[in-house]
């Protein structure tokens, strides 16, 4: 296996992770992209420390100016993207360069959704609307799926979670499931297509139920505490994107 392309993919993941970390701070604040800086005193990091993982190693997780610790989210996002991009190069690049490039973008979108939803319970229109438009535009060129099934998947994802949001908000009160989750579900349906959107929905429900049950029994969350649903949607989507057909075949034929 050629190591240089793999190393470049991992390095790209670190760089994209750094960009997403900054977008995760700037977009919810309704400001343009800024240079990486300390979230407490505002001091800009030197250009060679724009990748937070390097700043963690060199500065021992503390700002040189005010001494405040950097959030663990910064290196976790970068390392997570680096590992994922490396995995995508190993598994997808040999079969489809276009699909590889597309999945890099999709994973970056999901990572940004995770940052904003976990930290602020926000799934931003500035993220989901361009993502939906991109998914529609590339659907004629997506391997293993026709535009018809992509659009059908988007409709199924949107309608299912719109119905869940409507029922939840009427039964449990406003905010049980937000409009951002519904739009994210539409995007997921567009990229996994029909019938895999059904698998993505089932996985989302199972993962959400298991995680929520764990949070309740460990008393990390109480019954009335809000739990962001975006991460469960992302988990179901990523699993379906990467291993959807093998999972479906295993379920149907075992």
Record keyword descriptors for this entry.
globular; 2 domains
Give an account of the 3D structure.
The structure is a single chain. This protein has 2 domains: 1-122, no CATH class; 123-254, no CATH class. Helix content is 69%, strand content 0%. It has helices spanning 3-26, 52-59, 73-91, 97-120, 125-138, 147-172, 179-192, 196-217, 230-253. The chain is mainly alpha-helical. Helix 5 packs parallel to helix 7 (179-192), helix 6 (147-172) runs parallel beside helix 8 (196-217) and helix 8 (196-217) packs across helix 9. The mean pLDDT is 90.
User: What is the terminal-to-terminal distance?
Assistant: 34 Å
- Report the portion of residues in β strands: under 5%
How many distinct domains?
2
User: How many DSSP H or I helices?
Assistant: 9
Largest pleated sheet: none
Secondary structure class reads mainly alpha
DSSP helix fraction: 55-70%
Mean pLDDT: 90
CA gyration radius, whole angstroms: 19 Å
Order of helices and strands: HHHHHHHHH
What's the β-strand tally? 0
Principal-axes geometry comes out as globular
Given as residue ranges, the uncertain stretches (5+ residues, pLDDT < 50) are none
Quick take:
This protein is mainly alpha-helical and 254 residues long. 69% of the residues lie in helices and 0% in strands.
Q: What topology does this entry show?
A:
Elements (H helix, E strand, L loop, with lengths): L2 H24 L25 H8 L13 H19 L5 H24 L4 H14 L8 H26 L6 H14 L3 H22 L12 H24 L1
Helix pairs in contact: 1-3, 1-4, 3-4, 4-9, 5-7, 6-7, 6-8, 7-9, 8-9
């Amino acid at each position: 296996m050629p190591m240089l392309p793999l190393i470049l993919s991992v390095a790209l993941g670190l760089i994209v992770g750094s960009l997403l970390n900054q977008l995760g701070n700037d977009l919810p604040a309704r400001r343009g992209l800024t240079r990486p800086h300390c979230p407490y005193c505002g001091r800009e990091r030197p250009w060679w420390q724009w990748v937070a993982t390097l700043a963690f190693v060199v500065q021992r997780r503390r700002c040189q100016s005010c001494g405040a610790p950097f959030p663990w989210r910064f290196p976790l996002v970068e390392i997570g993207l680096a590992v994922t991009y490396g995995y995508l190069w190993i598994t997808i690049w040999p079969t489809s360069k276009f699909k590889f490039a597309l999945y890099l973008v999709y994973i970056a979108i999901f990572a940004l959704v995770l940052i904003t939803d976990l930290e602020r319970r926000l799934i931003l229109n500035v993220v989901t609307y361009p993502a939906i438009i991109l998914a529609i535009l590339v659907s004629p060129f997506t391997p293993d799926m026709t535009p018809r099934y992509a659009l059908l998947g988007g409709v199924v994802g949107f309608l299912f979670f719109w119905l869940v949001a409507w029922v939840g908000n009427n039964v449990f009160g406003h905010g049980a499931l937000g409009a951002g989750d519904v739009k994210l579900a539409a995007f997921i349906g567009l990229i996994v297509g029909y019938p895999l959107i059904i698998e993505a929905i089932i996985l989302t429900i199972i993962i959400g139920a298991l995680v929520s049950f764990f949070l309740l029994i460990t008393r990390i969350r109480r019954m009335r505490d809000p739990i962001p649903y975006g991460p469960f949607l992302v988990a179901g989507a990523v699993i379906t994107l990467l291993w959807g057909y093998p999972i479906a075949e295993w379920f149907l034929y075992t």
